[in-house]
Amino acid sequence: MKRLFLIDANSLIHRAFHALPPLTTPSGLPSQAIYGLSRMLSRLIKEENPEYVAALFDRPEPTHRDEMYAEYKAGRPETPNELISQLIEAHNLFKAFGIKTFELAGFEADDLIATFVEKFKKEKDLQIVILSGDRDGIQLVDKEKIVLWTPVKGISEIFVYDEKSTVEKFGILPKQMTDYKSLVGDSSDNIKGVAGVGPKTAMTLLNKYGNLDTIFTTKDEGPAVLKVKNNRKEAEFSRGLVKLRKDAPIDVKIEELKLGGGSDLAGYFEKMGFSSLSQKEKAKKEEVIDPQKSLF
Fold first, then answer.
1. CB under 8 Å to 139, separation ≥6 — which residues?
2. Cβ contacts of residue 130 below 8 Å, gap of 6+?
3. Are residues 15 and 131 in the same domain?
4. Contact indicator for 50, 3 with CB cutoff of 8 Å
5. Torsion sign over Cα 264, 267, 273, 274
6. d(C-alpha 243, C-alpha 35), whole Å
7. Are residues 184 and 60 in the same domain?
8. How far apart are CA 121 and CA 49, in angstroms?
């Protein structure tokens, strides 16, 4: 089975920036996030050998969530200039790896990922792997066909969310995650959810009723159900913020995402001052091919 990796670029760059000590290029520019991302991509390509890869970026323009809710993501610290410069530079890094990048005003990277999942999920013999530092992509997980990989220890250890691990961790199916977060909220994005409904209550309700709309219409009048019914406006508002959009106007074919065609990766690493990574890339090019194993 071939695999398509969808990389939440902003998320991974943020994680690398905070996981590593400050580094600078030979010219004095900050580089620890680029270094961390370089290591991650090098390992991904070496160990997983993906056929298709795309990197999705956030844009600074407002999205529909900002228009719905002025306090969306309020409370987050301002992005430091040292990180902004590396978010910009990351486009050059992906280009050097031969990975296409996508961004679109009005859409978050998560929405672009959801759009790509919707576009390619029916491709035969293709598994889609979402690589992200946050768990918003769980709502896209579908058995083993679509999975989410999230770094859990710095940038080196990965946790895989498939249907089984999602149930083990949250007690619900991936397709119920949108309604789950609509009930419990999401503090990282300043989404309130329904006051007084925590993870255990949300899990119990969704296991019993299946989804939020059924909870709204059931004739049951238990305390937890009434709490949701009485706060339907808040729950639906939160759902509008949580739900990923799948309609970003991007026209792309799967073959356009084929990995390869990058520039001089060793030269790029050398320019950035990543000597160990540069040497590894040069060593790859200098590997002697055993004529007994050559296809030609």
1. 174, 175, 177, 178, 181, 242, 243, 244
2. 6, 8, 113, 117, 137, 140, 146, 147, 148, 149
3. yes
4. yes
5. positive
6. 32
7. no
8. 20
CA pair distance 135, 194, nearest whole angstrom: 20
> What is the SS3 assignment for 157-208?
EEEEECHHHHHHHHCCCHHHHHHHHHHHCEHHHCECCCCCCCHHHHHHHHHH
Could you tell me if 162 and 189 lie in one domain? no
Residue span of the structural domain in which 271 resides: 2-170+245-285
Answer yes or no: do 166 and 69 share one domain: yes
Residues 6+ apart with CB under 8 A from 256: 100
CA angle 82, 87, 88 (to 5 degrees): 100
62 and 187 both lie in a single domain: no
- Residue 287 phi, psi dihedral angles, 5° rounding: -60, 135
Same domain, 181 and 249: no
Backbone φ and ψ for 3, nearest 5 degrees, come out as -130, 140
Mean pLDDT by 10 residues, the chain (296 residues): 97 94 96 96 92 97 94 89 96 96 97 98 96 95 95 81 96 97 95 96 97 96 94 97 96 95 88 94 65 34
Q: Are residues 132 and 87 in the same domain?
A: yes
Strands laid side by side in the 146-153 sheet: 100-102, 52-56, 2-8, 126-131, 146-153, 157-161
Q: What pLDDT shows up at residue 261?
A: 73
**Model-level pTM?**
0.92
Structure tokens at 154: 């710095």
Cβ pair 57, 99 in contact under 8 A: no
The helix/strand/coil state of 220 is: coil
Q: Are residue 279 and residue 202 in the same domain, yes or no?
A: no
Q: Which long-range contacts (CB under 8 A, 24 or more apart) does 264-267 make?
A: 264/96, 265/96, 265/97
